[in-house]
Write a structure and sequence with these properties.
globular, alpha/beta, single chain, Rossmann fold, 13 strands, 2 domains, 6-stranded mixed sheet, 5-stranded parallel sheet
């Protein structure tokens, strides 16, 4: 894990100078504890029964701890959130508290939102730019500023991207041997089903049903397939199907555990569109989880039968990479699809001032005019609001087309 430089570190360095309390949220295994502990003088692990008992007996111990104080897995003892909030209200200095959590608290815990007191920062698995697989040369921040220099060459071929998809962006898993990675990822999913959900107050009476639903969700990766179709795909061999209310509960709680990470439909602040489809695109926290749920392998993805799913999973890897990069610029990411389905753009990265970068994701190394038609349509519609248009590819060279659209191998995209 030590070898991975994280984009979030720059955010934390700035925020710790001005914010008394910062919460780092994200799925288990993304590196929250490691990242936060490097910046902390005192660490309270709230999943440790002994440490939990000390704070439960006397929460004031927290206020006597040397800052920066880390409360790891704070959702195990939600009362601590309110203790921190009250300390902020009482004038805690910048950089006093860090909280890390792999879930929002289970139902029944009435904690204050923390708005105005505790700054929340999302941490995702490693984006491609954080894995050190290539020297990234095209900055998303510069694209958003309209100052990007588009150039560079990537040595990562299609087989290299497939390897990154199956390897995962979980820092403790990605560099393990292939067989061990598979065991770790399978164990990760089993833990979610058999332990994390029950800990979150969800009774999973038939684990195999939840696993089937997750596999159906994984098959819909990078699409906005409606949930009724995902439910239909969950039908067992005997024709049985879980109740809709059951799968809604799965979805909601898996999202609270950050295992599901849907990409929202883009809603422009000044809306020139008559109708946009707001349904989210389906994504798991990491594309490798989808690979395991679907029983795929690198060889299968590279075979003629793997084409459609490879495209979806490559887009998922691109989405993860763009989201990590966008967070470094404090930009939001969504996707665009018109209500009639005539136009769609895979990723819209928008800054607070409304400027945006439109991104399409294509496996082809050399995009055709047909591949960029939606980018051209959006530029015609929004004009200077679209400061740049990009096609992320699995190719080797970054360049600009004659129409000005940037073609960037995914491995070359930097924060």
């Amino acid at each position: 894990m030590n070898g991975h430089a994280r984009s979030i570190d720059r955010d934390l360095s700035k925020l710790l100078k001005i914010a008394p309390a910062i919460a780092i949220d994200g799925a288990k295994g993304v590196g929250k504890t490691f990242t936060a502990s490097r910046r902390s003088s005192t660490i309270w692990a709230l999943d440790d029964p002994d440490q939990h008992a000390i704070l439960a007996t006397d929460p004031r111990v927290l206020t006597r701890s040397k800052p920066t104080v880390l409360l790891d897995e704070w959702q195990r003892f939600p009362r601590m959130w309110d203790v921190v909030r009250r300390q902020v209200d009482a004038g805690a200095a910048p950089g006093t508290f860090l909280l890390t959590g792999s879930a929002t608290p289970a139902a029944g815990h009435d904690t204050h939102s923390g708005a105005g007191r505790i700054v929340s920062v999302r941490m995702r698995p490693l984006g491609l730019q954080e894995r050190g697989v290539s020297a990234a040369t095209v900055s998303l921040a510069a694209l958003l500023n309209g100052t990007a220099e588009v150039g560079g060459e990537s040595e990562l071929g299609l087989d290299g991207y497939v390897e990154q998809i199956v390897a995962s962006g979980f820092p403790g898993i990605t560099s393990a041997p292939n067989r061990l990675r598979e065991e770790y990822l399978d164990g990760y999913l089993t833990r979610v089903i058999e332990r994390d959900l029950p800990d979150h107050g969800v009774s999973v009476r038939r684990p195999e049903t939840l696993r089937r639903w997750l596999a159906a969700y994984a098959a819909a990766t990078s699409t906005s397939t409606n949930y009724s179709r995902i439910l239909d795909a969950t039908t067992a061999g005997d024709g049985s199907q879980p109740a809709k209310t059951t799968t809604i509960a799965y979805r909601d709680h898996l999202t609270q555990l950050w295992v599901l990470d849907p990409l929202p439909g883009w809603a422009p602040s000044l809306n020139p569109f008559t109708r946009l489809q707001q349904a989210p695109k389906h994504h798991l926290a990491d594309p490798a989880l989808a690979v395991r749920l679907l029983g795929l392998s690198a060889a299968r993805l590279m075979s003629p039968q793997g084409g459609a799913q490879l495209g979806q999973l490559f887009e998922a890897l691109a989405t993860l990479t763009v989201r990590v990069a966008a967070q470094a610029s404090r930009a939001r990411v969504g996707h665009l699809r018109t209500g009639d389905g005539k136009h769609e753009v895979d990723l819209i990265v928008e800054e607070n001032d409304g400027r945006l970068v439109a991104i399409e994701v294509k496996l082809a190394a050399t995009p055709t005019d047909a591949d960029v038609r939606h980018l051209r349509w959006l530029k015609d519609r929004l004009g200077e609001t679209v400061v740049d248009s990009v096609v992320l590819t699995a190719g080797s060279h970054a360049y600009r087309r004659r129409d000005g659209i940037a073609v960037v191998p995914l491995a070359l995209l930097a924060d």
